[in-house]
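Lab notebook, bench 4. The sequencing result for the construct came back, and we need a structural model before the next group meeting so we can plan mutations. Quick request posted to the team channel:

Model the 3D structure of this chain.
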Amino acid sequence: MLKRSFFIASIALASFSSCVSVTSTAHVQNKQELNNIELQGKLYAAVFQQNAAEYQALCAQAFNIAKLQLDNILQQEHQKPLAIVTDVDETFLDNSPYAVQMAREGKSFSDASWTQWTTRADAKPVLGSVEFFQYAASKNVEIFYITNRGVNDKQGTIENLKKFDYPYADDSHVVVRTSESSKETRRENLSKTHEIVLLLGDNLSDFSAAFDKKTQSQRLENVISNQELFGKKFIVFPNSGYGDWEAALFDYKKDLTPKQKDQIYNQSVIGF
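Done. Here's the predicted structure in token form:
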């Protein structure tokens, strides 16, 4: 009887030890999985972008507002040909497959992998974009795609636009980055020949140099001081995956380690 009791106790102890071991391992594993907030966050942002009907609704809403504003603008007199300036990525082309692939491979953005993606010319339109740009073109309003895609991305970008029948998909209207990332000089050059009546983008720097390389507090201050322009001349599109909001969080430092970024992400939010 004593031997049997000892045997049962031994089994119970082994089972308990096994549970503790499994629980402990699972805890460590979960901790490791949460260790790279950036990659996990970009994957989660892509889940929203690819699956949420709300995302497409937000894009459709932005293009509906843009059309209303354009109709009002067309009622007025103008001295120069009219132009709409639009960003490309996450403004009307969905690049979430790139974000998914990078996250699955445990990699961050690189020029080489990005050009590999843009060369495919396979980014899909967001809801309402093709119709809006075609409508603007039918009213003799030129579309200029001022993008921070690079020279190596230009041909793939033009092919992508042509694939989905975007107007003005040509060399003179697709204006890529050559040196500086700021779009101000490119906008100013266009202003010499055209009146820019609308600007579309997912990043505040798509609208004005007032948002270039600014701190988080300065970006917010400039939004507040220019709030009457949003929905009127500035049309903003949702992008929770990347942007200057993220760069500002890191004080525009590009050499931070994943661990350092995790610390900044955690310190930037408030729980209860």
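The CA atoms of residues 71 and 254 lie 42 Å apart.
Will bring this to the meeting.
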